[in-house]
Amino acid sequence: MDFSNLQSRASSAYIPPHRTQLHPRMHSFSSFASPNPKPSQPRDRWWVLLAAVLIVPFLFYLFAIARGIHKSSKFDEWRPKGFGVIINAGSTGSTIHVFEFLNEGRIPFVGYDGKGSNSMKVRPGLSEFRDDPGRAGSSILSLVEFAKARVPKSEWKKTKVRLMGTGDLGRLDMDVRKAILESCRLVLRSSGFLFKDEWASVITGQEEGVYAWVAANYALGTLGGDPKETTGIIQLAEGSIQVTFSPRGSLPIQFSRVIELVGVTYNLYSESTFHFGQDEAWASVLGLHSSQDLGSFLSSSEGIMKNPCIPKGYSQKLNQAEINTSDGKQLASQLAGNFSACRSEALALLQKGKDECFHPPCKIVSSFLPKILGNTVPPDTFYYTSEVCKKQQNLEFLIYFVG
């Protein structure tokens, strides 16, 4: 075969590849493929202009979405939304609580930054100023300073401060109680916080139980839901015991407390019984020691009173104001640390006065007590008792103890 007529192809000559030689994704570009394509400046300008027209609105869209996400509650929940200050004026002392609300929503989230305690207690209680009511306000000055150290100064004027008196304060003469509260109002008015005179008041035992119920269900995450899913509380306060829960069915008006939270209405049973709080019950036990019912615990010759309700190794002097004896002498409390004997004394305390009951069964709470459904939690003192007795924070110990 004669190859002389064949011309060699210069390297610059270009033969487009067949479509079968191209990757399928390159088919659309095969017509433009060239080893030395010549730029088409007008066409490139149009492409750049078109891209800019499309990209700029898209960037604005992305910016708007990012801004909306940044403002959403999910990203904003750890930013402080406000503060609240509560002073609980109890029988043995006054305690201040500083709360920081971290987000907005149906129920504000109360945070804790771990920088220090959010509460502080001072003694004595406001009721101890009954003989000099004007000095009552000075007893809470340190509490106000504590709150100022926890709340940023820029937030003072927007932060509400409330004082709620409980226990012995509510049993004082009306004029004395008003004078004590007014002394405290003078301090709170000049505190720099947001305050109104009606925000310093004495609350009833039933109201105390309702507040404890709200706090417990907030902590458990059931607040704002179905009333049947909420948890009841049994609270052992200083001077009284409160039982509060959401029952099924109607209630007598004297035991009913209706509250509305986040659009849900709760009809609560709330009962408060005085003389069975921690401090009052202890004083009653001391009184029973001097009675004839518990005379076996008293040795008049040595002036020694055995107390089985406190562990051994502790000695306590009791004066005439704490325990009344026939001859008025001072006694020493000898602590025996006997659980069985202590339980017997507690039962004697609970049995006391049953001869005056006209509506059996005679219990320490009202004869009207709806059936407790669901769970109950024992806050405060009952909680610690349950922990010590290894009862997993329930009421088994309490039920066993009161028989």
From TrEMBL:
Q: Does the keyword Transmembrane helix apply?
A: yes
Transmembrane regions: 46-66
Any idea which UniProt keywords this protein has?
Hydrolase, Membrane, Transmembrane, Transmembrane helix
Which GO molecular function, any one, fits this protein according to its record? hydrolase activity
| Pfam families for this protein | GDA1_CD39 (PF01150)
Q: Where is the active site?
A: E208 (proton acceptor)
- What family is it from? Belongs to the GDA1/CD39 NTPase family.
Give the protein's recorded name: Apyrase 6
**Source species:** Nelumbo nucifera (Sacred lotus)
